Protein: diguanylate cyclase
Amino acid sequence: MPDLHSKPPSAPLAQSEAYAAAALGIAVFIACVIGTLSRPVEFLASFWPANALMLGLLLRRPSLGYHRGTWLWGGGAFVSSSLLMGDGMAAAFLLSLANLAGVLAGWVFLKRLDRDTVMLRGTLSALYLLCGCIVSSLGEALLGGMATPYLFGGSMVKAIVMWFTGALICNMLMLPVVLSAPSFEAIRRARPGSWLGYRGLLHLLPLAALVTSEVAAVLLGGPGSLVFGVPALIWCALRYSLFSTALLCLAVGITKLYTASLGLIIYTPDHMLDAVSLRLGITLLSLGPLAVASFQAVRNELLDKLNYAARHDALTGVLGRNTFLEQCAHWLQRLASERRPAAVLMIDLDNFKSVNDTYGHAAGDELLRGFTRLVQQQLGPADLLGRMGGEEFAVLLPNVSHAEAREVAERLCEATRRELFTFSDDLQLHITASIGMVHQNAPPGHERIEQWLKEADYALYEAKGTGRNRVVTRAFAAA
Structure:
């Protein structure tokens, strides 16, 4: 059991870890019961998900591995489930010890790797995952294999080999599912995709190909049927998320294990070669799709970062000029067709050049970031904020009256004037902003956005020319 040498956590954090350890124990207990139901008469389970589940949860929340309660809850889950399903005390203790040894071995190996690699977000994640599964399975098999002859009789060597291959296939099928499963927050924020129409049907084609391949494998049989679904699984890995691919690999693996057991394979040491061959084949079958899906996940993440960088200002994180104009054009086109009002604000920080000249560009950059955060706090979720260049920003306020837009502008001006921007213990600054505003009850179409912003810019110049730290409105001069 891991020893703790770090500083004791705070009371709320310790309580949170205790609750998480208890939840892990309950989940492992349920998985143990499910695994026990797959056990042939008087031998080990043909599919045992509990160890991979516990290992995956430890890797997802690394702090749990250093919490003593985690191992106590996990061990209790293994022992109690074994007793519940009819095992004797000796069998429950020895089998549980082997399960914990496998989880511990896999955790010690995988926790040392880069977190992105462990969470299947690295180009070599699938290979490292296979290595971790091998280490975990060896740790489990060495203890379990030595106990098996005492519990069930037979050869120790055969028991170790059977235990190792059984643990390996379970880890390789279950662990990717646990590691890639989306968080509750990600599920809550996810937008359900449309499965209707032509594009929805195209999205289902890889899944349909996989189902067809597996049906053909069952109907035709033979040694080659094991790999019938490989092309379809690769297609799924290219089109679906990593989690979806991991689920499909799990479903295919369990299906093959089940169909092979219908009079073809018996998972006992007396039929070791057939069982070992099948288990290793299914294990390696899932490696290719997982490697492709992991690589795709890395690629998609890099493309998302590149797209974000191209569309957002690198310093402040708000929309860049071109993206702001593009999104404004879409908004104005919609507002013009619905005859709804809108307003545009052009904002400029007063005397910003003197901040750079006096305190340096690092202070100026930090001031721009702080001002951006301040503006975002004052805006609604539908409002657009973009950096037009230097210390000049623009805001689109859709569906607002003239009075409401003026109130937002005055509030921004007042918030900026009151804010004390802090850069270090000895550098705190007050700054003001000038704002030019243009409002229309029926805004121009998207092709006039540049002209509309130009009118707001004229109002901004007037605000700066008449004393700064104020809001000036201007009527839009329609052509």
Q: What stands out?
A: The longest strand covers residues 342-349.
